[in-house]
Amino acid sequence: MRERSRVEETIYAMQRAGAGSLQVISDFDMTLTRFAHNGKRVATTHNILDNRLLINEDCTKKMRELLNIYYPIEIDASRSVEEKLPLMVEWWTKVHELLIQQKIKKDLLAQAVRESSTMLRDGYKVFFDGLAEHQVPLLIFSAGVGDVLEEVIRQNHVFHPNVHIISNYMDFDRTGVLRAFKGQLIHTFNKREGALSHAAGLRELQGRPNVLLLGDSLGDLTMADGVSEPQNILTIGFLNDQVEERKETYVNSFDIVLVKDETMDVPNAIFRYITSSRDK
């Protein structure tokens, strides 16, 4: 934490305003899901598709090659966002083209999720259920694959009515075969445009000027840019990888930085405090 007193003041202000003024905006992969478990990386929504049910070995190989080229660029602290932007578009576009070529079948997605290593962070149920109980909207803003993301939260029994998702959704033909991706591409560093075009139009988010924002990438900090007349924004950054190289940038950018923390303990504690006065 860089400015403890400002963080405390923001939380106090959010508590005074209560749950009715709050919305939560969160990234998904490596933010709501774990980064690693028992020393092994946990599958992201794109990784879940790396299943022989859905794609062949050649596609897996090509996707891994792309990951090895572009992921180091994505997390490179020495490069500017402007530099990274066209390269991220390039990466996501190439991956989506590979997936479309595989003619993925919609009815196999649920099985692929069941067979994957994906895991939501410890304490996820308290987090999702608490937000639903207090009718606080949760906007999940993901550069992953929306259809897979929905299936993950559905299988974990936390796809409550207060959950709204902005992501890259698959477009299936009438026989349930992937033929394209819908709408504007969302990658790590263009969430601002998505926030302004999609989130700003969600009626459920109107009149909620306090924002708890969760992310694992500096690009996630723009997810609240669609909030009309924000009053208090508290940002929590999960620093999962390349800790020493990125720690200073994260501490200077997020209000609270959680280093290699695979739990929802801190967001849960903050939310519990914000809602505490309302329960008395």
From TrEMBL:
Per UniProt, subunit arrangement is: Monomer.
Keyword Nuclease among UniProt keywords: no
Biological process terms from the Gene Ontology for this record are: nucleotide metabolic process
Q: Which GO terms describe its cellular component?
A: cytoplasm
Q: Which UniProt keywords apply?
A: Cytoplasm, Hydrolase, Magnesium, Metal-binding, Nucleotide metabolism, Nucleotide-binding
Q: What is its EC number?
A: 3.1.3.5
Q: Which organism is it from?
A: Acanthochromis polyacanthus
Instruction: Quote the InterPro entries the UniProt record gives.
Output: HAD-like_sf, HAD_sf, Pyrimidine_nucleotidase_eu
User: Which protein family is named in the record?
Assistant: Belongs to the pyrimidine 5'-nucleotidase family.
What this protein catalyses is: N(7)-methyl-GMP + H2O = N(7)-methylguanosine + phosphate; CMP + H2O = cytidine + phosphate; a ribonucleoside 5'-phosphate + H2O = a ribonucleoside + phosphate
NCBIfam families per the UniProt record, alphabetical: HAD-SF-IE
Protein name, as recorded: 5'-nucleotidase
Q: Where in the cell is it found?
A: Cytoplasm
